[in-house]
Amino acid sequence: MTAPRTCLVTGASRGIGAAVAARLSADGHRVALLGRDADALDRVGSALPGPAMTLPADVTDPAAVEAALERLEGAWGPVEVLVSNAGAGTAAPLVDTTDDDWARMLDLNLTAPFRLVRRVLPAMTAAGWGRIVVVASVVAKRGEAQVAAYSAAKHGVLGLVRAAAAEVARTGVTVNAVCPGYVDTPMTDATVEGIAARSGRSPEDARAVLARRQPIGRLVDPAEVAEAVAFCLVNAAVTGQGINVDGGTVQS
Questions:
Q1: What pTM value is reported for the model?
Q2: Do residues 122 and 157 share a domain?
């Protein structure tokens, strides 16, 4: 285990973000939780075993994020571990994807992580140690029907990770992506509802369809994604990677 570090997890109020926060806290780190839902952040933070700070903010609002980071740095010092997890998807045929849909997917899933990485990197490189992990998606590595805007944004954020890793490879800072498949989270619940509405299937059947898309035949547990994030903290030789946590869906 690495020494106790100051960690920032975005999208920390539920799902993968909450699982990552729990894992980092259990490993002895200080964890700041950033997300839009203050009450949900408080519930997650109060359940952590170690020091926690909640930072209500929307990652697509640069001023709000800057204010949150200044509050965090004032209390705990510079961010040493960034887990950029906040994200969302939208589903529609490409020809029905509006400009607003497209812009929203890029703003949330690509531009917001870019701003966070740009903001925390100087202190990490100055210190000679830092870890950045972006939660991407299996569709960062392959196209999938009905999610053109989401897939394009996730492909982009994997490119961001690889470029950043190449720039800072000799500084003691690593930059990686974790690429989950279908995870048992509220985001997947929304996907299930969409499939059920479009297809006429029951939600149970729609969930089973998603599980069968993965060779392991089930949804990924959020704790399994958190395990991959934790691995990125302790292995300094792993950087510039997109680590698949997808039940064998994409073998790369």
A1: 0.94
A2: yes
